[in-house]
Write a structure and sequence with these properties.
The protein is α+β, with helices and mostly antiparallel strands. The chain has one domain (about 15-60). It has one helix and three strands. Strands 2-1-3 form a three-stranded antiparallel sheet. The longest helix has 13 residues, at about 35-50. The radius of gyration is 18 Å and the shape is elongated. The mean pLDDT is about 85.
Length: about 60
């Protein structure tokens, strides 16, 4: 099969969200990645209740 006849397939881009927090001058990033922004935001709220400060949600496109 020639290169001209090969069908080019494009993968959909996936957006993942990660929670990043600071505590005692150190920065922590969650190992979990979330597909839903609201779920990541909820996790950030839980981490803030546990004593972390300045939790933000970071969007990554892969």
């Amino acid at each position: 099969m020639s290169l001209r006849k090969k069908k080019i397939e494009y993968l959909e881009r996936v957006v993942l969200y990660v929670v990043k927090c600071t505590s005692d001058g150190k920065t922590y990033t969650t190992l979990a990645m979330y597909k839903d922004y609201d779920l990541a935001r909820q996790k950030a709220g839980v981490l803030q209740q546990k004593g972390f400060r300045h939790c933000i949600v970071i969007e990554m496109e892969v």
